[in-house]
Write a structure and sequence with these properties.
This protein is of the alpha+beta class. Helix content is 64%, strand content 10%. The strands form three sheets. The chain has a five-stranded mixed beta sheet, sandwiched between helices. A two-stranded antiparallel ribbon has the order 1-2. It has a two-stranded antiparallel sheet with strand order 6-7. α10 crosses α11. The radius of gyration is 32 Å and the shape is elongated.
Length: 422
């Protein structure tokens, strides 16, 4: 009898197929019956229980809450893989007939790994790749079933392990997307997944191509390596996903501390963090750095008359207008309410006034469309440059005083701080 499990084709000596397999030079796959069944069944059972444990933990994680598509897809892939390993274990233990358990288990396993790869692409910001993974998984399963029906052990190995390796490599590609901007953990997971996937694929290829093994790389060693690779892929896929999710959550929390959630620009804390190095540079001779503070005229009236949702639309609109007027090296932030600040490196006071005038005109000429009304806006600007003896408080206060002077002069204007102003 031939036991076809995830660890390769296991041949039991003394079966009717024993002589045929020996003649086909695949004696490496014929091992002592008791030891082989124990090793294979134990490993398959470990993989089944491991995936079931991940499914159980995922079930209780954020129970009842709406889940992101990537997390939902990953959870489904783990359920499919767990079912596949359980089916393969039952087939190896003769609980379920092998002609049913083995091809069905392999088909589920290939489909589950394909879904896992699709979930990784979803998490990488490519939902189209996730959707494309469904027809790819169906085609791969059909290809394997055709190879299985041909009833050639080497061909079965080649199809199953090569397809699994290919889908794992696609998942590694998703992890490696945006290589320069990803974390060290994600890079390590991408490299490890790719290497382990190649080990799995090499098992199927070398068994078919080299019946007697290749140099020191025997079929027995390949079997052990591929078994270890599949086990490590389960661990890396499970714990790696959870660690990456925690890493993203920590990044989101850190980002919320310095980024305004309404306008998606730095908040007051983020602005002062950006300001610190420029304050230090102001003590050295060189080109000046300008600070521009603007405040929307009558912004409180908009919130009171149209609601805070309309006020948020206005804030996003103004932030977008202003950012389009700035260079890549310029910094733009929201301080509080309808008050914003701009840091303009290598910019003198006269040039900063021109930038502020351009923004003032753009804001005044572009009404904001909200659900309840078209709202026309104006803004008042205060301009100054960083001095060597400035502190954060004094600098922002001086620009703020100039902005308030612009409001007192009739609003919708730009005022430069006096040279002698504190």
């Amino acid at each position: 009898m031939v036991i076809f499990t995830q660890l390769g084709v296991l041949h039991v000596p003394g079966s009717p197929d024993d002589h045929r397999h020996q003649q086909s030079h695949r004696a490496d796959d014929a091992r002592p019956c008791t030891m082989m069944n124990l090793d294979s069944t134990t490993m398959v059972l470990v993989l089944a229980l491991g995936n079931l444990a991940l499914c159980s933990l995922l079930f209780f994680f954020d129970y009842g809450a709406a889940r992101a598509p990537a997390l939902a897809g990953w959870g489904l892939s783990r359920q499919v893989q767990a079912a596949a390993w359980v089916l393969l274990a039952l087939g190896g233990a003769r609980v379920v007939p092998e002609p049913l358990a083995l091809p069905a288990g392999w088909a589920l396993l290939i489909g589950g790994v394909a879904l896992e790869s699709g979930a990784l692409w979803e998490a990488a910001g490519k939902p189209r790749w996730r959707r494309a993974m469904v027809p790819l998984a169906v085609a791969a399963v059909l290809l394997f079933l055709v190879c299985y029906l041909i009833d050639d052990i080497g061909l079965r190995n080649l199809a199953a392990l090569l397809l699994l390796g290919a889908f794992y490599l696609l998942g590694a590609g998703a992890l490696a997307r945006g290589w320069r901007g990803i974390s060290l953990l994600q890079r390590v997971l991408a490299i490890a997944t790719a290497l382990l996937a190649l080990v799995v694929a090499a098992r199927g290829i070398l068994v078919l191509v080299t019946p007697d093994g290749w140099r020191w790389l025997s079929h027995e060693l390949l079997r052990q390596l591929s078994s270890a690779a599949l086990y490590l892929l389960m661990l890396a896929g499970g714990f790696g996903w959870l660690l990456l999710a925690r890493e993203r959550l920590q990044g989101d929390i850190a980002r919320l501390e310095t980024v305004d959630t309404v306008t998606d620009v730095p908040n007051r804390r983020g602005f002062f963090a950006m300001l610190a190095p420029w304050m230090a540079l102001a003590r050295r001779p060189g080109l000046p750095t300008a600070l521009v503070v603007l405040d929307l005229d009558g912004f409180k009236r908009i919130n009171d008359s149209y609601g805070h949702l309309a006020g948020d639309v206005v804030l996003r609109h103004v932030a977008g207008l202003c950012k389009r007027q700035l260079r890549d090296s310029d910094q733009f932030a929201r301080l509080v309410g309808g008050e914003f600040a701009m840091l303009l490196p290598r910019t003198g006071p006269d040039e900063a006034v021109l930038v502020a005038e351009r923004m003032r005109a753009a804001i005044a000429a572009t009404p904001v469309k909200t659900e309840r009304a078209m709202i026309s806006m104006t803004a008042s600007f205060g301009v100054t440059t960083i001095r060597a003896d400035d502190s954060n408080v004094i600098l922002v206060q001086r620009a703020g005083d100039a902005m308030r002077a612009a409001k007192a002069a009739g609003r919708n204007s730009v005022m430069q701080a006096a040279p002698g102003a504190v």
